[in-house]
Amino acid sequence: MSDTAAPRATAPRPARTGQGQGALLAILALLCVGLSLATDTFFSGENMVAILRQSALVLIVAVGMTMLLVSGEVDLSVGASLAFVGCVAMDVTNQTDSFVIGAAAGILFGGAVGLMNGLVVTRLKVNSLIATIATLMMLQGGVYLFTREAVQNGHQLTAFTTLSTGYVGPLPIPVILAALICIAGAVVLRLTLFGRTIYATGANPVAARLSGIRPGRVKLILFVVTGLLTGLAGLILASLMNAGQPTAGRGFELTVVAAVILGGTSLTGGRGTIIGTLLGVLILKVIDNGIIILQWDQNLQMIVPGVVIVLATWLDMVRGRARDG
Amino acid sequence: MAEAPALDMAGIGKRFPGVVALDDVHLRLAPGKVHALMGENGAGKSTLIKILAGVYRPDTGTIRIAGEQVTLQSPRDALARGIKVVFQEIALIEEFTVAENVFLGEYPVGGAGSIRWDRIRADAAALFDRIGFGVDPAARVRDLPMSQQQMVEIARALAHDARIVVMDEPTSSLTPAEVEQLFAVIRRLTSLGIAVLYVSHKLDEIFAIADTVTVLRDGRHISTRPRSEHSEDSLIHDMIGRRIEALYPRTRGPATDRDILRVENLSAPSGLKNISFHARAGEVVGFFGLMGAGRTELAKAIVGFDPLRAGRITVDGRPLAPHDTATGVALGIGLLTEDRKREGLMLDLPVVQNATLAALGKWARGPFVDFAAERRATQDYVDRFNIRTPSLDQPVRLLSGGNQQKVLIARWLMRGLKVIVVDEPTRGIDVGAKSEIFALIDELAGAGLAVVMMTSEMSELLGLSDRIMVMAGGRITAEFPVATATQEAILNAAIV
Asked: Is the Cβ pair B376, A5 closer than 8 Å?
C-alpha cells in the first residue's frame, strides 16, 4: 500500500511473454526475407493479403485451442466439426432463406459439439485426446447420415457469400474477424480473472481446486468456446466454397494444434500465449505459401511443417532445461 | 586403525538452485557396525544418501570404499560397488515373487537361454536361511506386508554382495513388533561384517541399535560420537541447535471458547471412520498419527477436496457442501497441503500469481485483474514474511522450500480464512525456515483463526498445539490438552 512500493507495481508481466516469441518472430522474418529474395511474387500486397486470408480460419479456431491447451485439454474434433457445421449452416439457410438463422444454426452446432466434448471430459472424466477423437469419428460418420453429397447453395443470399469474399478497406472480412477474435482471446488470457483461472487450471489443477477454483467448469467453458469458434470457422469455409462439403476439414485439427504448439503453448497445460499462436499460424501459412509460389512438390506442405514442429518443440525443451539448471 | 573404513566420505558438498543442501560433510562407516545418521527434515540426510546411491553427484568431496577412491556414476554403479540403499519407497516389482525380486537383473540361465526358476527359488531360500528371514520365496510381493517387503529389499542387497547397506527411515511404516524383527535382521547383517547406515530422526531407535551417531543440521556436519556418549538431550540439541522452547516461540494468547470448525461423525471412502472434533478461534489443534493413520485423508475431507460417506462439517455454523472446495473456500476453510509441489504450487508461474490464486476476486475491476494492486499486496506479504525472492516475477520453482511454503501461507492470508488446515507444514523445509513457519502458524492462531495441524513430528506437535488429537486406522483414538500430553501416551494411542 505504501508509496515506495508503487514503482515496482507498474506494467503487468504475465508469465514468460517474450521468451520464445523472439525466436518465432526471427523464424518468420527469415522465411519472409528468404522468400522475397527467392521469388518476385512473394513480396506483394496481394500475396500478403492472401496469406492472411488463408491464416484466418486456422487462427479463429487456434485461439480457442490455445486456451483449451493452456487449461490442460485438447480438442481433435474441430476438423470434423468444421465440415459438419458447413453442411448444417448451408442446409438451414436453404430451408429458411435467412442468413442469420443459418449462421446461428452453424455456430450453435459447433457450440453443441464443444459442449458434448466438455461434458464427456469433465463429467465422465474421459481423457480429452480420446474423447475428442471419438467425437471426430462420430462426426465424420454422422455427416454422411446427414447428407451423402455436398450441400449446394440454393438460396443465393449475398450476405452468405460476402462473409468470405467481402472486404472492409483493404482487408477481407475473415481476416478482420480473426483479428478481433485474436485480440479478444489475448485480452481474456492476459488481463482477466478468468484468464488467470485458465492458467491455474492447466498449471496445477489440484492447487486450483484447493484454492476454490472449479477446474471442470473452466474446461467446460473452454470446450464450448472452442466449439463456437469452430462453428464460425465452418460457416466462413462454407461461404468460401459456396457449399457445405462433408469432406472438408480433414487434417484441419492437426494444423491447428501444430500451430498452437509451434507458438509455444505447452501440451501439458499452464503455458501459452495468443501472440505465440498467431506467430505459429503465420509461420505455417508462409511456409505453405512459399512452397506453392516456389512450385515445389505440394506434399511438402505437410512434410515441412512436421519438421518445423519437431525442431520448435525440441528447442523449447532445451530452453526449459537451461532455465531449470 | 587396523582396517580401512568400509566407507569414507570427506568434504562432500552439493548445491541445488537456491539451496546449499550439503556443505563439507564427512561420514566414515566401520565394517560390522551400525552408524546412525540423524537430523531434522531438510538437514541433508536424503541428499547424502542419494549421493551414496549414485542418484546425485556431489559438487565437491571424495568417496572411498574400503580405502579405494571411487566416483559413483549411477545407481547401478553404486550397487556394483557394494552399496545398497533401501529407500522409504520400496522399489520392488509387486507382481513378481519374492525370489524373482531378490535376483532381479541376474537370473541364472540354463541351456537354450531359459531362466532357471528352480535355482532362483533355491538360492533365495538359502539366502533367507543365512539371514534368518522367514518368508516364502515363492510368495508374491504384492501379498506381503510393508515390513516384509522391506526385508526383501534388504535380502536383495545381500544377493548383490553389498558391503554397505543404507536404510532410509526404515521404520516409518512398521509396527513395534516389526521394528524388533528389523533390528534382528540388522544385527545379523553386522555379524556378517556389513556396515549399516541407519537414517532416522527417532531417538529411541537410535539408542536401541546404533553404535555411532552422526548428526547433520542445515546441510552441515554437526557431530559424530559413539552412542554411549549421547543423552537424549544432547542429541536433540545437536539436531535442532537450540532448546525446543526457542524453536517454538509462543506469542499468542490462550484460545477463545468460540467454536469455529465443527466436524461431526465424519466417515469417508478414504478410510475415515466416525470422526468428530471441533476447533476454536485462536486455537491450534494438533493431529498426530503414524503413516496410514488418516491424517492427510482427514485434512482433505474437511476442506471438501475428498468425498464423504457420512457426517457434517460446519464453519461458523454454516454447513460445507461436501466434495466442493469452492464453497469451502467461500466459507473460509482452506488447506495448506503437505505436498507443495504437486498440490500447492504452480511451479513455472511467478511468485505473484501463486500468492494471489485464492483471492483473485479481491483485485477485480470488472472482469479484469488490477495488476498494480495485486502486486502491491503481494509485495506486502513478501516483505512481512521475509520471503527471499529476487522479484515477484521469479518462477516459484526456484525458491527454497521454506520460501515456497511462505508463499502458500500468504495465499491463504490474502483470502482471509477462518479455519486453516495445515498438513505437515515443515516437510522438506530447512531448520532455519522451520522456526519462521512455526512463528507464522502461531501468528495465524493469534489473529483468531482456528488452526488444524496434521503432523508426524512429535516436537512440532508438542511445541505448537493447544490440544492434541491422536489418530490410528482412520479414527481418533485419544485427545489430550497439551499440558498433560506426554510422548509416551501419544505414541501408545497412535499404535492402537
From this structure: yes
Note whether B56 and B50 are within 8 A (CB). yes
| 8-state DSSP, A42 | S
Ranges of chain A whose pLDDT falls below 70: 1-20, 319-325
If 0-12 CB within 10 Å is exposed, 13-18 middle and 19+ buried, where does residue A318 land?
exposed
pLDDT at A69: 96
Please indicate if any CB of chain A lies within 8 Å of the CB of B397: yes
Residues B209-232 have pLDDT tens digits of: 999 999 998 889 999 999 989 887
Q: Report d(CA B133, CA B107) in Å as an integer.
A: 21
* Min distance A72 CA to chain B CA atoms (Å): 13
- Examine domains B7-241 and B246-495 and report if their fold is the same: yes
Measure Cα distances from A68 to A54, A189, B262 in Å. Answer: 23, 11, 39
pLDDT in tens, B19-67: 788 999 999 999 999 999 988 766 888 889 999 999 999 999 999 999 8
Domain spans in chain B, listed from the N-terminal domain onward: 7-241, 246-495
Q: Is B117 on the interface with A (CB under 8 A)?
A: no
Q: B480 vs chain A: nearest CA distance in angstroms?
A: 30
List the CATH code of the domain at B246-495: 3.40.50.300
User: CB count, 10 Å around CB of B111?
Assistant: 6
CB contact under 8 A, B346 and A196: no
Contacts of A10 in chain B (CB under 8 A): 372
A145 touches chain B (CB under 8 A): no
Alpha helices in chain A (DSSP H): 21-38, 45-70, 78-96, 99-122, 128-146, 158-165, 173-191, 193-203, 205-210, 215-241, 252-262, 274-293, 300-324
Q: Considering only A113-117, B93-97, B110-114, B300-304, which range has the smallest mean pLDDT? A: B110-114
Of the candidates A11, A196, A324, the beta carbon closest to that of B369 is on A196
Interface test with B, best of A197, A210, A316 (most B CBs within 10 A): A210
Type of residue at A191: L
Strand partners for B109: B115
| pLDDT of B172 above 80 | no
Domains and CATH numbers, chain A: 44-313 (1.10.3470)
Q: Do A193 and B361 touch (CB under 8 A)?
A: yes
- ipTM score: 0.86
Determine, for residues B372 and A1 on separate chains, whether the beta-carbon distance falls below 8 Å.
no
Chain A positions in Cβ-Cβ contact with residue B344 (cut-off 8 Å): 204, 207, 210
φ/ψ of B17, rounded to 5, equals: -55, 120
Residues of B in contact with A194 (CB under 8 A): 367
Instruction: For residue B370, list chain A residues with Cβ-Cβ distance below 8 A.
Output: none
In terms of pTM, does the model score above 0.90? no
Give the length of chain B. Answer: 496
**What is the spatial distance between Cα A135 and Cα B51, in angstroms, rounded to a whole number?**
50
Express each pLDDT in A102-129 by its tens digit.
Answer: 999 999 999 999 999 999 999 999 999 9
pLDDT at residue number A14: 41
- Distance from the Cα of B408 to chain A's closest Cα (Å) equals 10
The DSSP 8-state label assigned to residue B144 in this structure reads S
Give the Å distances, CA to CA, from B241 to A32, A175, B457.
65, 68, 17
Q: Give the Cα separation of A29 and A46 in Å (integer).
A: 18
Q: Tell me, yes or no, if A193 comes closer than 8 A to chain B by beta carbon.
A: yes
CATH class of domain segment(s) B7-241: alpha beta
Measure CB to CB from residue A1 to each of B334, B342, B380 and give the nearest one: B380
Q: Give SS3 for B212.
A: strand
Identify the residue whose cell numbers are 516456389: A294
Strands B34-38, B195-199: pairing kind: parallel
